[in-house]
């Protein structure tokens, strides 16, 4: 049973009620991209239909974790994957443990040593490995001898780690830009299937619209910075693809793709994305991360109207201090 979270007006009562009334003995709290879908597929290969899945954005993770932690765990497993450390989140884990949850956490984002030490005291398992995707960690931990799980992990890591050796990974990554496709792709991966007619149709449809969206972002791009050439652009769809399109066109070092509420996807040539994102209530990987400018109503309106923001200068100062 998947429980998609609608941001920003998540139905907190509905989530709590769904967790309380669950029949599954495994709650899988994960991100909302291909890596998360792959991790969920492997959870279901291992535990069957007894998995209650919660998809979460990075920005909503702490709040969602807190809601689940406040519910009675009754000895059930709360498995967290593809979501990194947030400030003071060990306190939420402690409350979850007190309420009867057994927590296993598998992640491939970068954690500080002191964060790992604090979290290990609150969970039964913590696996952090930045060399693979989260699906890879889950596959090794849960189904190390399963050839389907191994192949799913290989394809997912190809996309999530920006290797791009396997063309199937790019197709799945783009198809999952549409959240309606999550469960379908997940169920295909469980069966070891990487393409079907629905996936092909969705990919063809996406390809027809993606170029116009990227070009629209490019028209409104602002280039600034001295140490690094930094691009700021509004998001009209497909943040990863837009960032790389701008990099190719403008020869930039860092791309910041901003949604209307101030949340942004960050890509960088220098391995500092995760360090920058931490300063903006986010996190991620050295070359790909996300955060938020937390726009006020006035800032939102200014950005919508002019495609610029005073927050750009703040971002440049942070980025060029790294």
Task: Please give a structural write-up.
The chain has helices at residues 12-20, 34-47, 61-69, 89-98, 113-120, 134-142, 147-160, 167-175, 182-190, 197-219, 239-250, 273-278, 297-306, 311-319, and strands spanning 2-4, 26-30, 51-55, 77-81, 102-107, 125-128, 222-224, 230-234, 254-258, 263-268, 283-284, 288-292. The chain is an alpha/beta fold. The protein folds into two domains: 2-195, Rossmann fold (3-Layer(aba) Sandwich), CATH 3.40.50; 212-319, Diaminopimelate Epimerase, Chain A, domain 1. The strands form two sheets. It has a six-stranded parallel beta sheet, with helices on both faces. The longest helix is centred in the middle third of the chain and has 23 residues, at 197-219. It is globular and about 50 Å long. The chain starts with a strand and ends with a helix.
Q: Which features does this protein show?
A:
Diaminopimelate Epimerase, Chain A, domain 1, 17% strand, six-stranded parallel sheet, alpha/beta, six-stranded mixed sheet, 2 domains, 322 residues, Rossmann fold
């Amino acid at each position: 049973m998947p429980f998609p979270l609608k941001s920003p007006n998540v139905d907190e009562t509905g989530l709590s009620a769904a967790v309380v009334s669950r029949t599954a003995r495994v709650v899988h709290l994960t991100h909302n991209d291909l890596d998360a879908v792959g991790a969920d597929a492997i959870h279901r290969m291992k535990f069957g239909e007894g998995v209650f899945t919660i998809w979460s954005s990075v920005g909503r993770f702490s709040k969602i974790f807190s809601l689940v932690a406040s519910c009675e765990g009754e000895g059930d497993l709360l498995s967290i994957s593809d979501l990194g450390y947030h400030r003071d989140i060990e306190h939420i884990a402690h409350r979850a443990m007190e309420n009867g949850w057994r927590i296993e956490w598998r992640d491939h984002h970068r954690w500080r040593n002191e964060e790992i030490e604090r979290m290990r005291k609150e969970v039964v398992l913590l696996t952090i490995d930045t060399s693979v995707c989260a699906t890879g960690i889950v596959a090794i931990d849960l189904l190390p001898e399963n050839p389907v799980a191994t192949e799913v992990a290989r394809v997912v890591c190809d996309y999530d780690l920006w290797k791009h050796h396997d063309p199937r990974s790019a197709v799945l990554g783009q198809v999952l830009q549409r959240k309606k496709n999550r469960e379908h792709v997940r169920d295909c991966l469980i069966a070891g299937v990487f393409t079907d007619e629905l996936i092909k149709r969705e990919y063809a449809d996406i390809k027809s619209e993606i170029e116009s969206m990227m070009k629209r972002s490019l028209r409104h791009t602002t280039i600034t910075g001295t140490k690094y050439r930094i691009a700021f652009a509004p998001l009209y769809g497909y943040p990863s693809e837009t960032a790389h399109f701008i990099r190719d066109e403008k020869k930039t070092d860092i791309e910041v793709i901003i949604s209307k509420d101030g949340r942004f996807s960050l890509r960088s040539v220098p391995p500092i994305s995760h360090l920058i994102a931490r300063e903006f209530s986010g996190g991620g990987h050295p070359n790909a991360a996300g955060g938020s400018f937390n726009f006020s109503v006035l800032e939102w309106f200014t950005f919508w109207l002019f495609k610029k923001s005073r927050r750009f200068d703040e971002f440049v100062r942070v980025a060029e201090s790294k």
